[in-house]
């Protein structure tokens, strides 16, 4: 009679059997299965530094005590308050929690050498750079193109390379829903910008966002955010 093989056994067996090209899988005998289980348990115990006494099952007393503690835990500890934790993500969920503010020039790593000015946004059906690059929104959406002017206020040239900073930008256009930027391979994308700006010179950068068509005429303001090292900041700009 065939035996059901546990997940660790299946994982080890897959590694052993898939290593050779064209090798047909076969059912393990009881002795082979026991050998694999024992070896897997040995490896897990060897590299699990938190486990010092081997693999042990929880006693019935421990299980009952855990269940008792869970049942006595106040409901307020099991659920997060909607009023205090309305953080949004890439789907554009409502968010109200307070956050730290940061100048946009500081967010892109040049708080002293560059100034970044916001030049407004436009709702478009397509975003295009010259004749070589274009971005179109998903069905039912339109693009919001936010435009920025980056100026080198010094005399020496400054290299701006935002892609290596790993910044993710978000924007809010209705006062409550935060939307993640639309990825772009264009050379002007602020989140992947890589150019040298000479002293006193200006460059143009953009950020792209998608919103439903029925909301395109309802933009009530633009608020920009940046996620840097797992922390989200509200950005300040002129």
TrEMBL record:
Q: State the organism of origin.
A: Roseburia faecis
Where in the numbering of this chain does the DUF4352 domain appear? 136-217
Keyword Signal in record: yes
The signal peptide stretch is 1-25
Q: Which UniProt keywords apply?
A: Signal
Where composition is biased (Polar residues), the residues are: 69-92
Q: Where is this region: Disordered?
A: 54-97
UniProt-recorded name of the protein: DUF4352 domain-containing protein
Q: Do the record's keywords include Signal?
A: yes
* InterPro entries xrefs: DUF4352, Immunoprotect_excell_Ig-like
In terms of Pfam families, this protein maps to:
DUF4352
Gene3D superfamilies (UniProt xref): 2.60.40.1240
């Amino acid at each position: 009679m065939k035996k059901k093989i546990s997940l660790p056994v299946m994982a080890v067996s897959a590694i052993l059997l898939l290593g050779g090209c064209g090798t047909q899988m076969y059912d393990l005998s009881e002795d082979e299965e026991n050998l694999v289980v024992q070896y897997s348990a040995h490896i897990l115990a060897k590299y699990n530094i938190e486990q010092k006494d081997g693999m042990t099952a929880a006693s019935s007393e421990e299980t009952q005590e855990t269940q008792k503690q869970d049942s006595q835990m106040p409901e307020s500890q099991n659920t997060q308050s909607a009023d205090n934790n309305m953080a949004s993500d890439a789907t554009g969920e409502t968010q109200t929690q307070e956050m730290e503010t940061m100048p946009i020039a500081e967010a892109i790593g040049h708080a002293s050498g560059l100034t970044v000015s916001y030049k407004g946004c436009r709702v478009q059906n397509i975003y295009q750079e010259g004749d070589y690059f274009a971005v179109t929104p998903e069905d039912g959406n339109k693009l919001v193109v936010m435009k920025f002017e980056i100026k080198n206020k010094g005399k020496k040239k400054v290299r701006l390379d935002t892609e290596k900073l790993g910044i993710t930008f978000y924007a809010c256009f209705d006062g409550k829903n935060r939307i993640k930027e639309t990825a772009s391979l264009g050379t002007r994308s602020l989140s992947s910008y890589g150019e040298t700006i000479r002293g006193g010179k200006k460059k143009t950068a953009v950020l792209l966002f998608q919103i439903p068509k029925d909301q395109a005429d309802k933009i009530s303001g633009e608020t920009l955010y940046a996620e840097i090292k797992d922390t989200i900041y509200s950005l300040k700009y002129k």
